[in-house]
Amino acid sequence: MKGFQQTLKNRISFNGQALHCGKDVAVNLIPQPVDTGVLFARSDLPGKPVLKATPANVVDTLRSMAIGADGWRIQTIEHLMAALHALQVDNLLVEVDGPELPLGDGSAQFFMKKILEAGLVTQEKPRKVRKITAPVAVIDEREPHSYLIALPGKGLRLSYYFTSDHKVTGNQFAQYVITPEVFQKEIAPARTIAFYRELEALRKQGLALGGNMDIAVVVGEDSYLNPLRFEDEIVRHKILDLLGDLYLLGPIEGEIIGLRSGHKLDLELALKLENQLV
Ligand SMILES: [Zn+2]
């Protein structure tokens, strides 16, 4: 993750459907100067309010990561953030004309392809990769306990234990040292998990993507209801979400181990780590 800071070669624009608001949203990715970080702006609101993607600017962690302020938010930022993190895009303005980013196929491939098509450009200043200096843990004590643990280490190594009583998914474990290549091949294509009954409920609410089997790994009572991209696709997607959420801190180095954790613990860990990264 070392080297010089990067941004996109050119500004790019695309559209896609968002899951929760059900709308077609337009996104602009706009190159930015060194030391900007990742900014999010609502292009449909007066004055185009803008915020940096930081732990302090998160307003919701239920189901997805949302940043925002009084009266506005942008949710489901984690899959784009994972692509920016792994592909080492340091400086970027993300404009969205709605309250949510497009879902694509439920993985990070949608955003990864757009970024790779646009291409990256090296900027004049070295990237500052901050290091985890001492162990930090956050725990959700609801049964069964969930944990997220950060340790010092070289590179960025992410491990995740997914546990489930569901006979279709079973337990899954994965561990990756994150590089752009590993991300493109092993992580970006992994889709989010959805239970068939949830998709049905969305469809009944009249949401555009409801009932759509192309936006997730769909788990039925006795089997997966669509073809898997990886045997352990669910845990790979959990690593994808973790990678995206951690990018609220900018580039970091160390080892992170999650057990049943999700966006809520990711944010708690990021808030704790922010004070001790060097
Ligand atoms: Zn996700």
Distance between the termini: 15 Å
Q: CATH H-level name of the largest domain... which superfamily?
A: lpxc deacetylase, domain 2
Fraction in helix: 10-25%
Strand content: 25-35%
- CATH-defined architecture of the largest domain: 2-Layer Sandwich
Oligomer class: single chain
The first-level CATH class of the largest domain is given as: Alpha Beta
Can you put this structure into words, describing what you see?
With 278 residues, the protein is an alpha+beta fold. It folds into 2 domains: 4-126, Ribosomal Protein S5, domain 2; 130-274, lpxc deacetylase, domain 1 (2-Layer Sandwich), CATH 3.30.1700. Helices cover 22% and strands 32% of the residues. It has helices spanning 78-86, 109-118, 180-187, 196-204, 233-246, 263-274; strands at 4-8, 12-17, 24-31, 38-42, 50-52, 58-60, 66-69, 72-75, 92-96, 120-126, 130-131, 136-140, 146-151, 156-162, 172-177, 193-195, 217-219, 252-259. Strands 11, 12, 13, 14, 15 and 18 form a 6-stranded mixed sheet that branches. A hairpin with a 5-residue loop joins strand 6 and strand 7. Helix 1 (78-86) packs across helix 2 and helix 1 crosses helix 5. The longest helix has 14 residues, at 233-246. The model has no long low-confidence stretch (mean pLDDT 95). Bound molecules: zinc ion.
